[in-house]
């Protein structure tokens, strides 16, 4: 099983390793062509997208054999939230199933050639000012799904929380690189990681600030780290880098967060 994970995380893609990321795109409407262009320019294998504002659930076959999975609110509701995932054609054959919880959560299962399984969870977390009951409900639902999975886990998405850096409270589930601020949502993310043996990989690699902050509103001089790559501890050794990539543009106040294996 270990060999299968290593081969797949090295990509089975001409040895270049696996490149994946997460991006809050602030609506996919009228942006699909631009998004696919950026996906191919960066040569991504998997891209989680959040705040798509796309209603309903659908799987779309894109140009060059890529697939896009989308989940949003019900059609009768106002368009909001929404999550999705674009998977490169060379990995599409490994997708065995996917499931959703409303417009804030997708789980994609990849079954490897040796029958080992990796689950990719795409999340869009509640805002910091949401009611506590909604936050508890969200994390309880996600935890319930995680508890039901048998295999390795990668979590991608805009979790709307600021986790700060490693301290006594967080333990080794978070690294020493990032921003100093931790808010209520950030504490919830840390608790989720501790409970499920996940690592907050953004915080394990040292980079300049411009490659750390995932959201920036220049007009209000605001910047924060709220988009994350989380992985189960067994996959830690394969993750060679996680950073913000500022080149890609999709008319959003969030930057693409990029992870590479090797």
Describe the protein.
With 262 residues, the chain is of the alpha+beta class. It has one domain: Deoxyribonuclease I, Chain A (4-Layer Sandwich), CATH 3.60.10. Helix content is 20%, strand content 32%. It contains five helices and 15 strands. The chain has helices at 2-9, 32-41, 89-92, 132-148, 184-196, and strands at 19-24, 46-50, 57-61, 67-71, 83-87, 95-101, 105-111, 117-124, 152-158, 198-200, 215-217, 222-224, 227-232, 239-245, 256-261. The chain has a seven-stranded mixed β-sheet with strand order 3-4-5-2-1-15-14. It has a six-stranded mixed β-sheet with strand order 6-7-8-9-13-10, covered by helices on one side. It has a two-stranded antiparallel sheet with strand order 11-12. Helix 4 links the parallel strand 8 and strand 9. It is globular. The two termini are 17 Å apart. The mean pLDDT is 90.
Total count of domains = 1
**3D shape:** globular
- Strand residue content: 25-35%
Question: Helical percent range?
Answer: 10-25%
Mean pLDDT: 90
Topology:
Elements: H1 2-9, E1 19-24, H2 32-41, E2 46-50, E3 57-61, E4 67-71, E5 83-87, H3 89-92, E6 95-101, E7 105-111, E8 117-124, H4 132-148, E9 152-158, H5 184-196, E10 198-200, E11 215-217, E12 222-224, E13 227-232, E14 239-245, E15 256-261
Parallel strand pairs: 1-2, 8-9
Antiparallel strand pairs: 1-15, 2-5, 3-4, 4-5, 6-7, 7-8, 9-13, 10-13, 11-12, 14-15
Helix pairs in contact: 4-5
């Amino acid at each position: 099983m270990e060999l299968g994970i290593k081969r797949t995380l090295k990509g089975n893609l001409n040895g270049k390793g696996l490149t994946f990321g997460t991006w809050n795109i602030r609506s996919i409407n009228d942006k699909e062509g631009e998004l696919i262009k950026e996906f191919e320019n960066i040569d991504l294998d998997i891209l989680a997208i959040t705040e798509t504002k796309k209603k309903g659930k659908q799987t779309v076959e894109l140009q060059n054999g890529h697939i896009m999975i989308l989940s949003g609110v019900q059609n009768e509701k106002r368009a909001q939230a929404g999550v999705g995932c674009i998977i490169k054609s060379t990995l599409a054959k490994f997708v065995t199933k996917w499931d959703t919880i409303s417009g804030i959560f997708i789980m994609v299962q990849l079954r490897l050639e040796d029958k080992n399984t990796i689950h990719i969870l795409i999340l869009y977390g509640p805002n910091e000012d949401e009611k506590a009951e909604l936050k508890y409900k969200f994390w309880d639902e996600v935890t319930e799904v995680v508890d039901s999975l048998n295999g390795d886990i990668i979590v991608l998405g805009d979790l709307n929380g600021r986790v700060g850096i490693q301290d006594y409270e967080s333990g080794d589930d978070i690294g020493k690189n990032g921003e100093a601020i931790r808010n209520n949502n950030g504490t919830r993310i840390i608790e989720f990681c501790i409970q499920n043996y996940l690592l907050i990989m953004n915080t394990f690699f040292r980079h300049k600030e411009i490659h750390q902050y995932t959201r920036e509103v220049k007009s209000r001089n605001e910047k924060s780290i709220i988009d994350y790559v989380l992985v189960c501890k067994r996959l830690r050794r394969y993750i060679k880098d996680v950073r913000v990539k500022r080149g890609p543009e999709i008319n959003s106040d969030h930057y693409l967060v990029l992870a590479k294996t090797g």
